[in-house]
Write a structure and sequence with these properties.
- The complex is a heterodimer of chains A (234) and B (125).
- Chain A has 234 residues and is an alpha/beta fold.
- By secondary structure, chain B is mainly alpha-helical.
- Chain B is 90% helix and 0% strand.
- In chain B, helix 2 crosses helix 3.
- The longest helix of chain B is centred in the last third of the chain and has 59 residues.
- Classes of the chains: A alpha/beta (234), B mainly alpha (125).
- The interface between A and B is medium-sized, with 16 and 8 residues.
């Protein structure tokens, strides 16, 4: 669970995760927050890894994946720390993980009432069209921060998870798709964010589309990274 | 060209080279970063001492105004140095990022070890 300045929501989210998903380990990666995120997350009962400065979601996720590898976890589920994801949906993601390596929780796939309009919506549509063809499956919400990775994807991401802007959503999908991971999408409902409103500024949306296209273009131009199978048990 | 400009050209080239070499000597600059500056300084010195070489080189390539060749080469060198710096910066950022990740993971591990140690400590006595 990557967290950056989420002191208002994070404790509640951790408590909910631990309550609805008994038996999971909840790791909050604090991405150099300047507020009381660490204390709040600990109060909720989570393990907290503290990054000394802000690395972005990508850097925080790498810590999560590496922690999973070092401690022998098979699956990693990423949940936003602002409470917009319902932990109850994790079961649906894990179910799909039986037949896939990477499962996205998607907002626009029919469930829930979350809507985005205007240029930002168009940007998302353009992105999902391209990424769907790369991933060889229909994806409607490529920027979702609600995703589950199976053992193969965890190994891949621990080493190759991109840390650039938008790398955590767009480029990570491209890397997974080109490493021949099976990607799936599961409809989930999103709740209104606890703090902050999504922006509808058309200029920001255009800038977002531009940066996202750049990220996508470079992701496709980079050499693909192969997925190393684990060495057979002796 | 007057004697004064001639001396001025040679002195500036020598000064540039002198600064670069002195910084190398004091280890304020690593060789691989200094290479471009050394090349540029040497070229400036050669042209300063023998202005004829510039006209000869311009003639050879077909540049009509020799000074334009100087500008072109200067811009090219600066451009290459800038790109090299960007690449170095990227490499350094990657390294700091990995260090930050390691530091976070280590901290987590130390906390775990400390709490384990406390637990055995209190149960042992």
């Amino acid at each position: 669970m990557p967290a950056f300045n989420e002191e208002e929501a994070v404790r509640q989210v951790v408590l909910e995760v631990l309550e609805k998903l008994p038996g999971v380990s909840c790791l909050v990666v604090d991405d150099g927050s300047s507020d009381r995120t660490i204390e709040e997350a600990r109060a909720g009962g989570a393990l907290v890894a503290r990054l000394p400065f802000n690395l972005g979601v990508g850097g925080a996720m790498r810590v999560g994946f590496r922690y999973a590898i070092e401690h022998g976890f098979d699956n990693v589920v990423q949940v936003d720390s602002d409470g917009q994801h319902d932990p109850a949906n994790v079961y649906a993601l894990l179910d799909s993980l039986q037949t896939a390596d990477l499962v996205l929780g998607a907002r626009f796939a029919g469930e829930g009432t979350y809507t985005v309009r205007g240029p930002r919506r168009w940007a998302m549509v353009v992105l999902s069209t391209f990424l769907s063809s790369t991933a060889r499956t229909k994806l409607t919400d490529t920027t979702s921060g609600f995703r589950a990775s199976g053992p193969r994807a965890v190994r891949l991401f621990a080493e190759h998870y991109p840390a650039e802007y938008l790398g955590d959503t767009i480029e990570s999908l491209v890397i997974a798709a080109r490493a021949k991971c099976v990607i799936k999408q599961v409809p989930v409902s999103m709740r209104v964010r606890a703090g902050g409103k999504p922006s509808h500024d058309p200029f920001k949306a255009a800038a977002y589309l531009g940066r996202a296209s750049m990220a996508l273009l470079f992701a496709l131009m980079r050499p693909p990274v192969p997925l190393h199978e684990p060495e057979p048990e002796r | 060209m007057t004697v004064a400009t001639y001396i001025f050209g040679v002195l500036s080239a020598l000064l540039t080279l002198g600064v670069v070499i002195e910084m190398l000597r004091r280890r304020r600059l690593r060789e691989r970063h200094a290479v471009w500056w050394l090349i540029a300084g040497t070229m400036a010195l050669v042209i300063g001492v023998f202005p004829g070489t510039l006209e000869w080189a311009a003639d050879l390539i077909g540049v009509e105004v020799p000074l334009n060749l100087v500008f072109f080469v200067s811009v090219a060198v600066l451009f290459l140095v800038c790109i090299q710096h960007s690449a170095e910066l990227t490499a350094l950022e990657t390294k700091t990022r990995i260090l930050a990740e390691n530091s976070a993971l280590h901290e987590l591990r130390i906390e775990k070890l400390e709490s384990d140690a406390r637990a055995t400590d209190s149960s042992g006595r």
